[in-house]
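Below: protein 1.
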Amino acid sequence: MSSSLIGVLQYHCADIDSACPEPEPSQLACLADVLGRLPDPRRTRGRRYRLGSLLALCLVAVLGGATSLAAIARFAADTDSELREQLGLPASTPNASTLGRVLARLDGDALDDAVGAWLARYAADPVDEPGDTLVGLAVDGKTVRGSRTDGQAVYLLAAALHACQTVIAQRQIAAKSNEIPAFAPLLARIDLRGVVVTADAMHTQRAHAEHIIAAGGRYLLVVNGNQKKLRKQLRHLPWKQIPLQARTTGAGHGRRAVRRLKVCTVRPGLLFPHAVQVLEIKRRRTNRKTGKTETKTVYAITSRPPEQASPTQFAELIQNHWSVEALHHVRDVTFGEDASRVRTGTAPRAMATLRNLTIGLMRQAGWTNIAAAADHYRSRPHHATAMLRLTA
């Protein structure tokens, strides 16, 4: 089998209907080397397994749907000699406690930076023509509930590409209240040129806007009660004189939703830096079971000028921002993240990073159903190990 990304993805996609992306091979690095170059927290004396081999084992097992350290150890014990050789493992295989000790002592930032940078080199929203599709990057946080010890649970702030639900940056923070100071460090290693950063109202901060603009990006931020004066300004814009510019519908989680969008270009004087347009989104949700309807008006501001984005594109950005919630749902339901009892050191974060990497690889391989993808790689582990051989 070819070791290039294009060859591997096309080979895997022979079993599914969706089309594979075609990234440039010259922009890729070998995933196995990326994992192998991470700093090893262990002393040299007494090492039985190379760090890169252990992380490769964990990734291949998670690609096959492993949700715990015990499941990874069982996968390792069941592997044949050929697969162990591909992973760089000796005749013996590590047990769950060995894996747990290694993951618990890893440098979480180094792991996230290496994995995020590797994914960011090819996992991008597909753009056929300039201006055809806006590249959206959603910033959102998630609690790994199963990691709770002494009342504290691991909380991760992540930046994920809209279209492919791929996390390209992640940081662990103390709690949700610490998201604001973690925003700039999270985005510091990402090239924001041509990217629209989307975030909820917590991140509608002037310093955040300045950071995004200074990095060459654009923003689309929700305005809520934490910016009372700004929200009051937005509410008093001449919305009644502006015609409806976009309408989208959707269904999910037992609800039917209709969103109506209006866009207003604003003059200098708005109480937020670099904002040039304001969006009014009227969202109507109907519970299919009870028939109860809720209506809510949401305001958002953007630094993207009118000539660079249409109202329809803004509607897509707003709707696609919540694709990060779908990513969290996959991690919880398919990979049992919230039910996981991995709690020691950086192990919960490392497992979450491996799940992010797994989902990113699956999405890039064209899979729309992650559970089906896990079944595929569980029964065909050589397809999973092929991911490790992706070379430039």
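Below: protein 2.
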Amino acid sequence: MLVALASAAAAAQTLPDLKGRKVVVVTENAYPPLQFVEPKTGKPVGWEYDAMNEIAKRLNFAVEYQNTSWDAMIQAVSDNQYNIGMTGITINDERKAKVDFSDPYMRSEQFMLVRADESRFSDAKGFAALKDGLVGAQPGTTPFYTAVYSVLDGNEQNPRIKLFETFGATVQALKTGDVDTVLTDGTAGMGYVEASNGGLKLVGGPLGSEDFGFIFPKGSDLVQPVNAAIAALKADGTLDALNKKWFLDYKMGQ
């Protein structure tokens, strides 16, 4: 334990100092519990906000948050409109062609989110066999591609996939019966289940794992400092504490 504490302290002492530089961070505020608007207060909150605020503190930069839609975010960061993007973005080679990624700050797995009274299927195979079953998804996201290639037939125009502009809209469609399942990483899925007052549940096994990272314009000089801060947050237990706060202790009031 003493060795671990000493290592964490050493990491903190060697973090770069960005000397109060302004860093513009863009997000969508539509992916609880990573980032969302708290219904009771109207303020944006979440795991990623807490993590980014701590990174800003340790690296000594002034963070400014802005919002944009998911479908515009990666290109906007690539075009240098923002310094960092965060919204549970899966690290993959296609996106690496447009932006630089931080080291992973979280690993998650995809699960099926359904209404609590769903009894027609209990896993991906059962859903695929349900000929009139519909899945809600946000185009261009990991849940969309998982639905296409791991649940259905590999056809990205499959009429069983109903497209929505935000992840929250897919969940609302699930609640109202307009779709029968939504794919989500387990972390966000647990948040929606907790918030549903018994209305939703997760079913089936994991449909693949994914690593989340922050994104930057190509060649950004922020990548290395942020990676150093992520390593420090892992070493001293800060990320574990955030996981407990947002995935175990917090009950979203929506």
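Residues 1-12 have pLDDT under 50 and may be disordered.
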